[in-house]
Predict the structure.
Amino acid sequence: MIPPGTATEKQVVARVMALYRAVGCSVHSTQQTRPSRQAIGLPDLWVMHPRIGGWWHEAKRLGGKQTTGQRAFHFACEAARVPYVLGGYDEAEAFLRQQGIAVLSGNAGPLLGLTGR
């Protein structure tokens, strides 16, 4: 287990992706290890679930801040009513719960399943 606040963004992304996949999501990374022609501010992950649809996830380690481009993309998603999750595992877990997807809280990992919603 990684002590709180010490995870790299890469570790945060890996943990978030594992959570999403464990509850039946397909996860697509947009992260680039080199400069690209990708749109400025494009989030790290595009996530899709067969029941609740798709959303963007911008992974941030504890204390991480959005860039100006990321904030602009976030605001554009809000204006278009496209779901956008900002943060790490806890924020991903909270989003899934809001959507009616049951997860086992804490470090034990995800619990597969859907709530009655």
Remarks:
- The longest helix spans residues 9-22.
